[in-house]
Amino acid sequence: MSRSFLDRRALFSTAAAATLLAATGVSAAGPKRGGRLRMALSGASRDDTWLHGDGLFMQVARQGVVFDTLTEIAADGTLRGELATGWTSSSDAREWLFDLRSGVVFHDGTPFTAKDVVASAKGFSDGTVQAVGDHQVSFTLEQPDAGFPMRLAQPEYFIRAAHAPQSGIGTGLYRVTDFAPGQRLLTKRVTDHYKNETCGWFDEVELTSIPSERVRGQALGEYLVDAVDLKVTDGLADLTDITFQPDRRRPTQAVSADVMQPVQVSHLRPLDNLRAAERWWFA
Q: Which end of the chain is more exposed for a tag (fewer CB within 10 A), N or C?
């Protein structure tokens, strides 16, 4: 399993990010709620499940839509807690204790507890993990890892429900209403979520699998979708209502100008570190 690293240029304060936000011309009025975000993505397979499948389609489906991780890299590039609220480590960075968020429920109404982290960690921990009560977990790693909390922000470390590990039941901002592996995912915003008023501005999020980059670009150019991943701007470069990120010379995505985004300071992954559904909104 490959491990991502944090771009050190992304480590700056939210105050600096706000300054850059103003400089880019993005409205400081704040996001507004509503609409369906439609993304056409590569990397899907008919063999995809909620546990297996590492293409871009399933990465976005898991981390940016249906599930949460213990930590997250915020839009300004800083590390913060998601399902975890805090953590401490031993001096050798082998033993870690995470405090878990209380009051969180899965999409079927089941409370989130430490047992869900323990069950999920069986698929990604390189050591041992134990529950310490209902809202604490301890990790003992085989090797020291000072960047362990940052590692847990990556999409492969999503937390699933211990009682339904192979289902699309998560704690994320959007619940599954329809899922056809390798084809389509449709989700609806959770009405009462622990992140309310901080992110998750769309009423619905739809992911469509389009393997061909040319066809994905055509779908965006014909206003059938709002965002696509791509590496070549052919056929779209002359359209003024489409933006390319990070830029036209080395794009990883193309997005409709109707979509607003927080400032981005790191290009580790396309689609705003996979959390487009949480962080974008319509103008």
A: N
